[in-house]
Amino acid sequence: MIPYGRQHIDEDDINAVVETLKSDWLTQGPAVPQFEQALADYCQVQFGVAVNSATSALHIACLSLGVGDGDRVWTSPNSFVASANCALYCGAEVDFVDIDITSGNLCAAALADKLEQAACTNTLPKVVIPVHFAGQSCDMEAIAKLAQMYGFKVIEDASHAVGASYQDSRVGCCQFSDISIFSFHPVKIITTLEGGMAMTNNAELASTMRLLRSHGVTNHPDSMKKSSDGPWYYEQIALGYNYRMNDVEAALGASQVNKLSEYVTQRNRVAAHYDQRFSGEGNIAPLVVSPSCVSSFHLYVVRINAITPEQQAWLVSSLREAGIFAHLHYIPIHTQPFYREKGFNWGDFPAAESYYRHAVTLPVFPDLTPSQVDFIADTLLSLVNSLTR
Ligand SMILES: *Cc1c(COP(=O)(O)O)cnc(C)c1O
């Protein structure tokens, strides 16, 4: 079976992990700050705060921006549930902004409309979390202008987009946001097994997130409320969590950063090959990548224009029977039973719902060979053509 995503692990990665296992530090040693520095340098951003998942990073990012009871957080319905859950962890309310169907990304024009309405009813969001779907940045310049105008903060959920670029800058540089989040789950671009990182140029946000990832406990004299009782002394000054990344994972992450550009190149090679195979096929529309973006192609998605939900299920099953683990990203978050209980319904975000009824995710990862891509393209083309015949 060809999976839809797969990590690439080489001897350098294995050696980095083994060396760390043999060292004095399995947690809270030098590897975590080294990984943070390596990825921050790559992204041209000042601070990286490594944690045990992107979900944890989203949670402490919201907390560091002061999200709490009664606040509103808006995100994309076309995402993994973690993009929305993080607001609920903080006691805030979640709402969604519909997407641009050609990119799968949160639509800046829909955001502008929704903000205009919310301003009238005094229900503006405190934070908006655009999600860089499939590895392509949202229109961050437009979103940042709206943030200025309406006074909300921006967290980029860049879980898919490590190594991507927007307007000649790396995603994660935070030029148009307060914080950017990466995920290092094995299906994402680089892996630490489980892991995530929050990037920011704001020293205060970085230090708040560092505090929150480790119980809210500090041993920095400058942060303490009273003078030290002795060399063992520490203080808890906030309610934090155990969200730390360990040194073994961080050593793997730092080794993976060395190959990040190559991974993105390979993923773009696969995407260009698919694009070429599907060009001129009226019923197959690959996601459109804007000229201002280089996607990291975490996912390669096609929309099948003329397809019923039954045919879509048959298509994905048939691909799997042929040894191709096709998938579907994403079931709109607002249609999940948990969110329906909060009052959301089918029909609330029509573009995300229509997108869901037409999309299919095909395999993409660095080691996918040209002949595998041709096999997948041939199989998809013959299945889709049998639909319309
Ligand atoms: C994978 C993913 C997450 C969660 O990442 P974890 O590291 O598994 O917690 C959050 N948002 C998006 C868009 C994702 O794809």
From TrEMBL:
Sorted alphabetically, which keywords does the UniProt record give? Pyridoxal phosphate
One GO term under biological process is: polysaccharide biosynthetic process
- Listed Pfam families: DegT_DnrJ_EryC1 (PF01041)
At what positions is N6-(pyridoxal phosphate)lysine found?
A: 188
Active site annotated at which positions? 188 (proton acceptor)
Q: Entry's CDD domains?
A: AHBA_syn
SUPFAM superfamilies attached here? PLP-dependent transferases (SSF53383)
What domain of life?
Bacteria
Which InterPro entries does this UniProt record tie to the protein? DegT/StrS_aminotransferase, PseC, PyrdxlP-dep_Trfase, PyrdxlP-dep_Trfase_major, PyrdxlP-dep_Trfase_small
Any one GO MF term held by the record is: pyridoxal phosphate binding
Family per similarity comment: Belongs to the DegT/DnrJ/EryC1 family.
The protein here is known as UDP-4-amino-4, 6-dideoxy-N-acetyl-beta-L-altrosamine transaminase
Task: State the organism named in the record.
Answer: Alteromonas confluentis
